[in-house]
Protein backbone atom coordinates (compact mmCIF):
# COMPACT_ATOMS: atom_id res chain seq x y z
CA UNK A 1 0.00 0.00 0.00
CA UNK A 2 2.73 2.60 0.82
CA UNK A 3 4.55 1.68 -2.40
CA UNK A 4 1.40 2.35 -4.45
CA UNK A 5 0.90 5.68 -2.63
CA UNK A 6 4.47 6.72 -3.39
CA UNK A 7 4.02 5.76 -7.05
CA UNK A 8 0.85 7.87 -7.27
CA UNK A 9 2.68 10.83 -5.73
CA UNK A 10 5.55 10.44 -8.16
CA UNK A 11 3.18 10.35 -11.15
CA UNK A 12 1.34 13.40 -9.83
CA UNK A 13 4.60 15.30 -9.37
CA UNK A 14 5.72 14.25 -12.85
CA UNK A 15 2.45 15.47 -14.40
CA UNK A 16 2.76 18.80 -12.54
CA UNK A 17 6.35 19.23 -13.70
CA UNK A 18 5.39 18.41 -17.29
CA UNK A 19 2.53 20.90 -17.18
CA UNK A 20 4.77 23.64 -15.79
CA UNK A 21 7.42 22.87 -18.42
CA UNK A 22 4.86 23.05 -21.22
CA UNK A 23 3.52 26.35 -19.89
CA UNK A 24 7.06 27.74 -19.62
CA UNK A 25 7.85 26.72 -23.19
CA UNK A 26 4.60 28.33 -24.35
CA UNK A 27 5.47 31.59 -22.60
CA UNK A 28 8.97 31.55 -24.10
CA UNK A 29 7.57 30.92 -27.59
CA UNK A 30 5.07 33.75 -27.19
CA UNK A 31 7.86 36.06 -25.97
CA UNK A 32 9.99 35.13 -28.97
CA UNK A 33 7.14 35.88 -31.37
CA UNK A 34 6.45 39.19 -29.62
CA UNK A 35 10.11 40.23 -29.85
CA UNK A 36 10.21 39.19 -33.52
CA UNK A 37 7.15 41.31 -34.27
CA UNK A 38 8.69 44.15 -32.27
CA UNK A 39 11.82 43.98 -34.40
CA UNK A 40 9.80 44.01 -37.62
CA UNK A 41 7.84 47.08 -36.50
CA UNK A 42 10.80 48.85 -34.88
CA UNK A 43 10.88 51.63 -37.50
CA UNK A 44 7.45 52.69 -36.20
CA UNK A 45 7.91 51.81 -32.53
CA UNK A 46 11.19 53.70 -32.08
CA UNK A 47 9.72 57.15 -32.97
CA UNK A 48 6.85 56.42 -30.56
CA UNK A 49 9.33 55.61 -27.79
CA UNK A 50 11.32 58.80 -28.47
CA UNK A 51 8.11 60.83 -28.53
CA UNK A 52 7.03 59.35 -25.19
CA UNK A 53 10.38 60.25 -23.63
CA UNK A 54 10.14 63.80 -24.96
CA UNK A 55 6.54 64.05 -23.80
CA UNK A 56 7.40 63.04 -20.24
CA UNK A 57 10.11 65.71 -20.27
CA UNK A 58 7.82 68.50 -21.53
CA UNK A 59 4.48 67.48 -20.00
CA UNK A 60 4.92 69.48 -16.72
CA UNK A 61 5.17 72.73 -18.72
CA UNK A 62 2.16 71.76 -20.83
CA UNK A 63 0.18 70.93 -17.71
CA UNK A 64 1.08 74.32 -16.24
CA UNK A 65 -0.12 76.14 -19.35
CA UNK A 66 -3.37 74.17 -19.49
CA UNK A 67 -4.30 74.24 -15.80
CA UNK A 68 -2.94 77.55 -14.54
CA UNK A 69 -2.97 79.78 -17.63
CA UNK A 70 -6.04 78.15 -19.22
CA UNK A 71 -4.41 77.54 -22.59
CA UNK A 72 -6.44 75.42 -25.02
CA UNK A 73 -4.88 71.94 -25.45
CA UNK A 74 -3.73 72.59 -29.03
CA UNK A 75 -2.22 75.98 -28.16
CA UNK A 76 -0.43 74.60 -25.10
CA UNK A 77 0.99 71.67 -27.08
CA UNK A 78 2.11 73.93 -29.93
CA UNK A 79 3.71 76.41 -27.52
CA UNK A 80 5.66 73.71 -25.70
CA UNK A 81 6.76 72.06 -28.95
CA UNK A 82 8.04 75.39 -30.29
CA UNK A 83 9.80 76.13 -26.99
CA UNK A 84 11.42 72.69 -27.09
CA UNK A 85 12.69 73.29 -30.62
CA UNK A 86 13.99 76.70 -29.56
CA UNK A 87 15.83 75.22 -26.57
CA UNK A 88 17.32 72.47 -28.75
CA UNK A 89 18.45 75.05 -31.32
CA UNK A 90 19.88 77.19 -28.53
CA UNK A 91 21.90 74.27 -27.21
CA UNK A 92 23.30 73.64 -30.69
CA UNK A 93 24.19 77.33 -31.07
CA UNK A 94 25.71 77.40 -27.57
CA UNK A 95 28.02 74.58 -28.60
CA UNK A 96 28.72 75.60 -32.21
CA UNK A 97 29.39 79.36 -31.85
CA UNK A 98 32.22 79.17 -29.26
CA UNK A 99 33.76 76.25 -31.13
CA UNK A 100 33.65 78.18 -34.40
CA UNK A 101 35.10 81.26 -32.69
CA UNK A 102 38.07 79.28 -31.39
CA UNK A 103 38.42 76.96 -34.37
CA UNK A 104 41.65 78.70 -35.45
CA UNK A 105 43.20 78.23 -32.03
CA UNK A 106 42.09 74.61 -31.95
CA UNK A 107 43.47 73.96 -35.45
CA UNK A 108 46.83 75.44 -34.45
CA UNK A 109 46.77 73.29 -31.33
CA UNK A 110 46.09 70.14 -33.38
CA UNK A 111 48.99 70.94 -35.73
CA UNK A 112 51.28 71.70 -32.79
CA UNK A 113 50.22 68.49 -31.04
CA UNK A 114 50.93 66.41 -34.14
CA UNK A 115 54.34 68.05 -34.51
CA UNK A 116 55.20 67.38 -30.85
CA UNK A 117 54.09 63.79 -31.23
CA UNK A 118 56.26 63.49 -34.33
CA UNK A 119 59.28 64.98 -32.53
CA UNK A 120 58.78 62.62 -29.61
CA UNK A 121 58.48 59.60 -31.92
CA UNK A 122 61.67 60.55 -33.76
CA UNK A 123 63.73 60.32 -30.56
CA UNK A 124 64.56 57.38 -28.32
CA UNK A 125 63.27 54.80 -27.71
CA UNK A 126 61.19 54.72 -30.92
CA UNK A 127 63.63 56.54 -33.27
CA UNK A 128 61.02 56.82 -36.03
CA UNK A 129 62.44 58.94 -38.84
CA UNK A 130 60.75 60.82 -41.67
CA UNK A 131 61.33 57.91 -44.06
CA UNK A 132 59.48 55.55 -41.72
CA UNK A 133 56.60 57.99 -41.41
CA UNK A 134 56.40 58.33 -45.21
CA UNK A 135 56.40 54.56 -45.68
CA UNK A 136 53.66 54.18 -43.06
CA UNK A 137 51.66 56.94 -44.75
CA UNK A 138 52.01 55.26 -48.16
CA UNK A 139 51.02 51.90 -46.70
CA UNK A 140 47.95 53.47 -45.12
CA UNK A 141 46.94 55.02 -48.46
CA UNK A 142 47.39 51.69 -50.22
CA UNK A 143 45.30 49.95 -47.55
CA UNK A 144 42.54 52.54 -47.95
CA UNK A 145 42.57 52.14 -51.73
CA UNK A 146 42.35 48.37 -51.46
CA UNK A 147 39.28 48.69 -49.24
CA UNK A 148 37.51 51.37 -51.24
CA UNK A 149 34.42 49.20 -51.66
CA UNK A 150 34.09 48.62 -47.92
CA UNK A 151 34.56 52.31 -47.24
CA UNK A 152 31.81 53.15 -49.73
CA UNK A 153 29.47 50.66 -48.06
CA UNK A 154 30.23 52.07 -44.62
CA UNK A 155 29.69 55.60 -45.91
CA UNK A 156 26.36 54.67 -47.47
CA UNK A 157 25.35 52.95 -44.26
CA UNK A 158 26.26 56.07 -42.28
CA UNK A 159 24.25 58.28 -44.64
CA UNK A 160 21.28 55.92 -44.32
CA UNK A 161 21.57 56.03 -40.53
CA UNK A 162 21.65 59.83 -40.56
CA UNK A 163 18.61 60.00 -42.85
CA UNK A 164 16.72 57.53 -40.67
CA UNK A 165 17.66 59.57 -37.62
CA UNK A 166 16.28 62.76 -39.19
CA UNK A 167 13.04 60.99 -40.15
CA UNK A 168 12.71 59.54 -36.65
CA UNK A 169 13.28 62.96 -35.08
CA UNK A 170 10.67 64.69 -37.26
CA UNK A 171 8.12 61.94 -36.68
CA UNK A 172 8.82 61.95 -32.93
CA UNK A 173 8.24 65.72 -32.77
CA UNK A 174 4.88 65.41 -34.50
CA UNK A 175 3.90 62.55 -32.20
CA UNK A 176 5.03 64.58 -29.18
CA UNK A 177 2.69 67.40 -30.23
CA UNK A 178 -0.28 65.03 -30.48
CA UNK A 179 0.62 63.32 -27.20
CA UNK A 180 0.77 66.69 -25.44
CA UNK A 181 -2.51 67.79 -26.99
CA UNK A 182 -4.60 64.63 -26.60
CA UNK A 183 -2.74 62.77 -23.87
CA UNK A 184 -5.35 63.23 -21.07
CA UNK A 185 -8.03 61.79 -23.37
CA UNK A 186 -6.17 58.51 -23.85
CA UNK A 187 -7.02 56.71 -20.60
CA UNK A 188 -10.79 57.45 -20.75
CA UNK A 189 -10.81 56.31 -24.38
CA UNK A 190 -8.88 53.17 -23.45
CA UNK A 191 -11.33 52.38 -20.65
CA UNK A 192 -14.24 52.58 -23.08
CA UNK A 193 -12.55 50.17 -25.51
CA UNK A 194 -11.74 47.42 -23.01
CA UNK A 195 -14.22 44.87 -21.68
CA UNK A 196 -14.92 43.90 -18.10
CA UNK A 197 -12.22 44.28 -15.48
CA UNK A 198 -9.61 45.16 -18.10
CA UNK A 199 -11.31 48.57 -18.37
CA UNK A 200 -10.03 49.24 -14.85
CA UNK A 201 -6.78 47.28 -14.70
CA UNK A 202 -5.13 48.41 -17.94
CA UNK A 203 -5.68 52.18 -17.40
CA UNK A 204 -4.34 51.91 -13.84
CA UNK A 205 -1.20 50.09 -14.99
CA UNK A 206 -0.79 52.56 -17.87
CA UNK A 207 -1.00 55.53 -15.52
CA UNK A 208 1.55 54.02 -13.17
CA UNK A 209 3.85 53.22 -16.09
CA UNK A 210 3.56 56.81 -17.31
CA UNK A 211 4.50 58.14 -13.86
CA UNK A 212 7.45 55.75 -13.79
CA UNK A 213 8.63 56.87 -17.22
CA UNK A 214 8.48 60.50 -16.09
CA UNK A 215 10.54 59.65 -13.02
CA UNK A 216 13.15 58.01 -15.24
CA UNK A 217 13.49 61.02 -17.55
CA UNK A 218 13.70 63.47 -14.64
CA UNK A 219 16.31 61.37 -12.84
CA UNK A 220 18.36 61.07 -16.03
CA UNK A 221 18.23 64.85 -16.50
CA UNK A 222 19.31 65.35 -12.88
CA UNK A 223 22.24 62.96 -13.25
CA UNK A 224 23.27 64.69 -16.50
CA UNK A 225 23.16 68.04 -14.71
CA UNK A 226 25.44 66.70 -11.97
CA UNK A 227 27.89 65.42 -14.60
CA UNK A 228 27.87 68.74 -16.44
CA UNK A 229 28.44 70.79 -13.26
CA UNK A 230 31.26 68.68 -11.84
CA UNK A 231 33.07 68.16 -15.14
CA UNK A 232 32.58 71.83 -16.05
CA UNK A 233 34.11 72.91 -12.73
CA UNK A 234 37.03 70.55 -13.30
CA UNK A 235 37.66 71.92 -16.81
CA UNK A 236 37.43 75.48 -15.51
CA UNK A 237 39.93 74.73 -12.71
CA UNK A 238 42.40 73.23 -15.17
CA UNK A 239 41.97 76.16 -17.57
CA UNK A 240 40.60 74.29 -20.57
CA UNK A 241 38.87 76.49 -23.18
CA UNK A 242 35.24 76.01 -24.27
CA UNK A 243 34.11 75.08 -20.75
CA UNK A 244 30.46 76.02 -21.30
CA UNK A 245 30.02 74.13 -24.60
CA UNK A 246 31.72 71.08 -23.13
CA UNK A 247 29.45 71.20 -20.05
CA UNK A 248 26.36 71.48 -22.27
CA UNK A 249 27.62 68.60 -24.41
CA UNK A 250 28.12 66.52 -21.27
CA UNK A 251 24.54 67.22 -20.12
CA UNK A 252 23.01 66.33 -23.50
CA UNK A 253 25.10 63.21 -23.95
CA UNK A 254 23.99 61.91 -20.53
CA UNK A 255 20.69 60.87 -22.13
CA UNK A 256 22.62 58.36 -24.28
CA UNK A 257 24.17 55.93 -21.78
CA UNK A 258 27.76 54.73 -22.16
CA UNK A 259 28.46 56.05 -25.67
CA UNK A 260 27.34 59.59 -24.80
CA UNK A 261 29.67 59.77 -21.81
CA UNK A 262 32.57 58.32 -23.81
CA UNK A 263 32.01 60.79 -26.65
CA UNK A 264 31.77 63.84 -24.36
CA UNK A 265 34.85 62.75 -22.41
CA UNK A 266 36.84 62.15 -25.60
CA UNK A 267 36.00 65.63 -26.89
CA UNK A 268 37.00 67.26 -23.59
CA UNK A 269 40.31 65.37 -23.40
CA UNK A 270 41.09 66.15 -27.04
CA UNK A 271 40.49 69.88 -26.56
CA UNK A 272 42.60 69.85 -23.40
CA UNK A 273 45.39 68.07 -25.29
CA UNK A 274 45.52 70.40 -28.26
CA UNK A 275 45.12 73.58 -26.18
CA UNK A 276 46.91 72.95 -22.87
CA UNK A 277 49.20 69.99 -23.49
CA UNK A 278 49.56 66.40 -22.39
CA UNK A 279 49.69 67.05 -18.63
CA UNK A 280 46.42 68.96 -18.49
CA UNK A 281 44.83 66.39 -20.82
CA UNK A 282 45.73 63.61 -18.38
CA UNK A 283 44.32 65.68 -15.50
CA UNK A 284 41.08 66.21 -17.43
CA UNK A 285 40.93 62.49 -18.20
CA UNK A 286 41.29 61.69 -14.50
CA UNK A 287 38.54 64.19 -13.60
CA UNK A 288 36.16 62.76 -16.19
CA UNK A 289 36.82 59.17 -15.13
CA UNK A 290 36.28 60.06 -11.46
CA UNK A 291 33.00 61.89 -12.16
CA UNK A 292 31.73 59.15 -14.45
CA UNK A 293 32.56 56.48 -11.89
CA UNK A 294 30.64 58.43 -9.24
CA UNK A 295 27.78 58.98 -11.68
CA UNK A 296 27.57 55.37 -12.82
CA UNK A 297 28.08 53.68 -9.46
CA UNK A 298 26.65 56.19 -6.97
CA UNK A 299 24.54 59.05 -8.36
CA UNK A 300 22.56 57.28 -11.06
CA UNK A 301 21.68 54.10 -9.12
CA UNK A 302 20.66 56.08 -6.02
CA UNK A 303 18.57 58.67 -7.86
CA UNK A 304 16.92 56.17 -10.18
CA UNK A 305 16.31 53.63 -7.44
CA UNK A 306 14.43 56.25 -5.42
CA UNK A 307 12.44 57.55 -8.39
CA UNK A 308 11.72 54.18 -10.00
CA UNK A 309 11.39 51.89 -7.01
CA UNK A 310 14.25 49.67 -8.21
CA UNK A 311 17.29 48.63 -6.23
CA UNK A 312 20.59 50.15 -7.33
CA UNK A 313 22.04 46.70 -8.07
CA UNK A 314 19.05 45.90 -10.30
CA UNK A 315 19.64 49.08 -12.29
CA UNK A 316 23.30 48.23 -12.82
CA UNK A 317 22.42 44.70 -13.96
CA UNK A 318 19.63 45.72 -16.37
CA UNK A 319 21.80 48.41 -17.99
CA UNK A 320 24.53 45.83 -18.54
CA UNK A 321 22.05 43.33 -19.93
CA UNK A 322 20.37 45.89 -22.19
CA UNK A 323 23.66 47.12 -23.63
CA UNK A 324 24.80 43.55 -24.33
CA UNK A 325 21.51 42.66 -26.06
CA UNK A 326 20.75 45.82 -28.06
CA UNK A 327 23.72 48.18 -27.79
CA UNK A 328 23.00 51.87 -27.25
CA UNK A 329 19.25 51.53 -27.66
CA UNK A 330 19.20 48.64 -25.19
CA UNK A 331 21.16 50.56 -22.57
CA UNK A 332 18.87 53.58 -23.04
CA UNK A 333 15.64 51.60 -22.67
CA UNK A 334 16.81 49.00 -20.13
CA UNK A 335 15.96 51.00 -17.00
CA UNK A 336 12.49 52.27 -18.06
CA UNK A 337 11.53 48.82 -19.40
CA UNK A 338 12.60 47.20 -16.13
CA UNK A 339 10.70 49.84 -14.16
CA UNK A 340 7.53 49.29 -16.21
CA UNK A 341 7.84 45.52 -15.72
CA UNK A 342 8.17 46.15 -11.98
CA UNK A 343 5.03 48.30 -12.10
CA UNK A 344 3.05 45.55 -13.87
CA UNK A 345 4.31 42.91 -11.47
CA UNK A 346 3.52 45.09 -8.46
CA UNK A 347 -0.05 45.62 -9.67
CA UNK A 348 -0.52 41.87 -10.32
CA UNK A 349 0.81 41.13 -6.84
CA UNK A 350 -1.62 43.63 -5.36
CA UNK A 351 -4.55 42.00 -7.14
CA UNK A 352 -3.50 38.47 -6.19
CA UNK A 353 -3.09 39.45 -2.55
CA UNK A 354 -6.42 41.32 -2.48
CA UNK A 355 -8.23 39.39 0.26
CA UNK A 356 -10.25 40.32 3.34
CA UNK A 357 -8.07 41.58 6.17
CA UNK A 358 -7.05 39.03 8.76
CA UNK A 359 -8.82 39.25 12.11
CA UNK A 360 -7.08 41.51 14.56
CA UNK A 361 -5.21 39.90 17.43
CA UNK A 362 -5.79 42.88 19.71
CA UNK A 363 -8.50 42.39 22.35
CA UNK A 364 -11.79 44.06 21.51
CA UNK A 365 -12.65 46.99 23.77
CA UNK A 366 -15.32 46.28 26.34
CA UNK A 367 -18.67 47.94 25.66
CA UNK A 368 -19.33 51.04 27.70
CA UNK A 369 -21.95 50.59 30.40
CA UNK A 370 -24.64 53.14 31.09
CA UNK A 371 -24.27 55.45 34.04
CA UNK A 372 -26.81 53.49 36.18
CA UNK A 373 -26.78 49.91 34.93
CA UNK A 374 -29.57 47.54 35.89
CA UNK A 375 -28.35 44.58 37.94
CA UNK A 376 -29.59 41.08 37.07
CA UNK A 377 -32.77 40.19 38.94
CA UNK A 378 -33.67 43.79 39.69
CA UNK A 379 -36.91 45.21 38.26
CA UNK A 380 -36.61 47.90 35.63
CA UNK A 381 -37.21 51.35 36.99
CA UNK A 382 -40.63 52.76 36.24
CA UNK A 383 -40.73 55.47 33.66
Automatic annotation (TrEMBL):
This is Predicted PurR-regulated permease PerM. It is found in: Cell membrane. PANTHER family: PERMEASE PERM-RELATED, TRANSMEMBRANE PROTEIN. Pfam families: AI-2E_transport. The chain crosses the membrane at residues 12-38, 44-62, 74-97, 162-180, 228-252, 258-291, 328-348. Its main location: membrane. Keywords: Cell membrane, Membrane, Transmembrane, Transmembrane helix, Transport. One of its GO terms (biological process) is transmembrane transport. GO terms for cellular component: plasma membrane. InterPro entries: AI-2E-like. Residues 354-383 are annotated as: Disordered. Belongs to the autoinducer-2 exporter (AI-2E) (TC 2.A.86) family. The keyword Transmembrane helix applies. It is a multi-pass membrane protein. The keyword Nucleotide-binding does not apply.
Amino acid sequence: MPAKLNADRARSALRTSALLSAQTLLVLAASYVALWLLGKAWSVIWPVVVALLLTTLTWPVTKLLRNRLRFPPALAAATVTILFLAVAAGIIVLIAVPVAGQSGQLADGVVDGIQRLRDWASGPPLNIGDDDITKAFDAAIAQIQSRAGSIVNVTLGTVTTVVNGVITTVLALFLMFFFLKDGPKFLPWLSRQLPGRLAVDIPVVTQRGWDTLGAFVRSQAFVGLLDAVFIGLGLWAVGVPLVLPLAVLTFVSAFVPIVGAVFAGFVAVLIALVSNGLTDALIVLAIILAVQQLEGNVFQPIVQSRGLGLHAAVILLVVTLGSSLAGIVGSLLAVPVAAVIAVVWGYIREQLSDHPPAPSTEPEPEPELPDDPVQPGEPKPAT
